Every structure is written in structure tokens, then in C-alpha cells.
Amino acid sequence: MILADLDLEKALWEKGHKLVAGIDEVGRGSWAGPLVAAGVIFPKNFTIPAKLADSKQVSKKERKRLAALIRKTAVSINIVEIPVEKINEVGIGKATQLAFRKIVASFNPKPTYCLIDAFHIKYFSKTKQLAIKHGDIKSASIAAASIVAKVYRDDLMEALSQKYPRYGFEKHKGYGTTLHQKTIKKNGFCKIHRTSYNLSFLVS
């Protein structure tokens, strides 16, 4: 496991950026359900929680523990959910950009600098930003955002599995696992599947 650090945040704090936000998304590659983005601003010189890393490297139990610690420590946390209807309307690329713009716009207090995992936020010049490849293993703020977003979305998909019990969403969270493929072939698509994705081969 690669643990995230504060090197990027510290460099920005030293330059006078008191409020540095880390931003990440979860669910971009999923075949069903919403896209969820989160943003986290930590106080200057805070102590990184033990085992803080990219959400994909952390167990469900650890993610829950870390999410609770992040909520207690952060200056501000934002979560934005882009529903499947919007994803199907505009596509996942524009939906991702929309989520990130909403995250930054709704922060209170406002960040003076944003660190984003992989993506540059388009059409948004009010706040300085830096897109970082594999940012969720390089920035504690981005890693924290990935944890918060992952816990939120997983809980949401588990709840949706009660409404759509034939698809096993509580197990695969909408991603293209063998189980998910089998349930689509058997039952067809449901209302929370992303019809904008080319998934027709599953029901042909």
C-alpha cells in the first residue's frame, strides 16, 4: 500500500494558500448508478490519519474508519452526486467536469488552490488548480476525497440494491464484473444503468 503524504499541500501552504482542496471522483467506470465526487480541505499542519491511501487500496472497514476521521478533522467537505439521468444525457466526460465544478463552487470556505486527481477542471478560472496523475497516492487531500466519495457511493449502491435486487449492486457497486454481466443478460437493463455506455452487447 502506498500511503499519501502532505508534500504538495505543504508547498502550497508555504506559498500562502491557506485553504488547499483535494478533489476526486468515484464511479466513473461503473455501468450503473451515479457519479460521486468529493472535495476535502484539511487544516494547515494537521496529522495524517494512519493508513490514509487511495480508496481502492483500503478495505471497506478501514475506509469507514478513515471517513469518520476525515469528517472530524477537515475544515470543509463537499460531496456532489451526478445522477445517471445526467450521465446518459451529457456523457461521462462532461458529467465528471460538472461534478468537479460543483464541488469547487459550493465550498464554504472557498479554497484558494485545488488539487485534482487526473483531471483539469475546464471552464473554471476562479480558483487555481493542478491536475495530478495518480493524485490519490501523492496527496493526502485527494486520498481523503477518494475515501469520502467511495464510502458515500458504496452506501448509496447498497441502498439501491434493495430497490433493484436482481442485479447484485451491493456486491459490485455497478462495475462490470462477471456477476453484473450475468444479471444484465438475464434481466436486461434497469433504470439506473448507464445507457450512454455501449453495453448493448450484453443483451444482444
Report the portion of residues in β strands. 15-25%
Q: Could you please say which CATH topology applies here?
A: Nucleotidyltransferase, domain 5
CATH architecture: 2-Layer Sandwich
Question: Any idea how many domains?
Answer: 1
The largest pleated sheet is described as: 5 strands, mixed
Beta strand count: 5
What is the C-level CATH assignment?
Alpha Beta
Topology as a string of helices (H) and strands (E): HEEHEHHEEHHH
Gyration radius over CA? 17 Å
Structural class: alpha/beta
Number of helices, counting only DSSP H or I runs of 4 residues or more: 7
> Whole-Å distance between the termini?
40 Å
Shape: globular
Q: Give me the CATH superfamily.
A: Ribonuclease H-like superfamily/Ribonuclease H
Low-confidence stretches: none
Percent in helix: 25-40%
Protein name: Ribonuclease HII
Binding site for a divalent metal cation: 24-25, 117
Keywords: Cytoplasm, Endonuclease, Hydrolase, Manganese, Metal-binding, Nuclease
Function: Endonuclease that specifically degrades the RNA of RNA-DNA hybrids.
Q: What would you say this structure looks like, in words?
A:
- With 204 residues, the protein is α/β, with parallel strands linked by helices.
- The chain has a single domain, classed as 2-Layer Sandwich (Nucleotidyltransferase, domain 5).
- It is 40% helix and 15% strand.
- The protein has 7 helices and 5 strands, in the order H-E-E-H-E-H-H-E-E-H-H-H.
- The chain has helices at 7-14, 60-73, 84-90, 92-105, 140-163, 169-172, 178-187; strands spanning 20-26, 35-41, 76-82, 113-117, 128-132.
- The protein has a 5-stranded mixed beta sheet with strand order 3-2-1-4-5.
- A hairpin with an 8-residue loop joins strand 1 (20-26) and strand 2 (35-41).
- The longest helix has 24 residues, at 140-163.
- The relative contact order is 0.22.
- The mean pLDDT is 92.
- Endonuclease that specifically degrades the RNA of RNA-DNA hybrids.
- Pfam families: RNase_HII.
- Its EC number is 3.1.26.4.
